């Protein structure tokens, strides 16, 4: 019986020490982890908000599963990174969209598109981006004729991000 109590106490002490060590390690590295997250997307974030200081938004709720990450761009607004299911399948289109504190879409850039070349990839063309940038957040975005599946997926992703932004940051 003494041995069982001894082992239980030993296990409790080791667990407490390990938990404390992990907490300390997390506290010491959390800033570096956040910097690395931003560094991966930094070039594309700079397209939307040049010169801004980006802070990742942690623990956001997304029922759709399409929002990959969210960054706060200082006082200027927020940038959403999304992965949507275009013609190429699950997560085949990845893009970023910025929502300004002025109530306008401040930027849009497609990071990758695995859809059919010259059909689904029309979502990467400047004409599509120009229809989005400068519009009011939540306003209707038209799909591209001949690229309906891909552009509908992107428009759906924009609607998800706009809804999340309106509910959480507006």
Describe this structure in words.
It is elongated, with a radius of gyration of 22 Å. The chain has a 5-stranded antiparallel sheet with strand order 1-2-3-4-5. It is an alpha+beta fold and 170 residues long. It is built from 3 helices and 5 strands; from the N terminus they run αβββββαα. A hairpin with a 3-residue loop joins strand 2 (67-73) and strand 3 (77-86). The protein has helices at 2-48, 126-132, 148-168, and strands at residues 54-56, 67-73, 77-86, 89-100, 105-113. The termini are far apart.
Helix/strand layout:
Layout: H1 2-48, E1 54-56, E2 67-73, E3 77-86, E4 89-100, E5 105-113, H2 126-132, H3 148-168
Antiparallel strand pairs: 1-2, 2-3, 3-4, 4-5
Give me a quick take on this structure:
The protein has 170 residues and is α+β, with helices and mostly antiparallel strands. Helices cover 44% and strands 24% of the residues.
Question: If you compute it from the alpha carbons, what radius of gyration comes out, rounded to the nearest whole angstrom?
Answer: 22 Å
Mean pLDDT: 88
The biggest beta sheet reads: 5 strands, antiparallel
Please, what is the oligomeric state?
Answer: single chain
Secondary structure class reads alpha+beta
Into which percentage range does the β-strand content fall? 15-25%
Side by side, the strands of the main sheet go: 1-2-3-4-5
Count of strand segments: 5
Q: CA-to-CA gap between the ends?
A: 61 Å
Percentage of residues in helical conformation? 40-55%
Give the CA-based shape.
Answer: elongated
Query: Ranges with pLDDT <50 over ≥5 residues?
Result: none
**Helix-strand string:** HEEEEEHH
Q: Number of helical runs?
A: 3
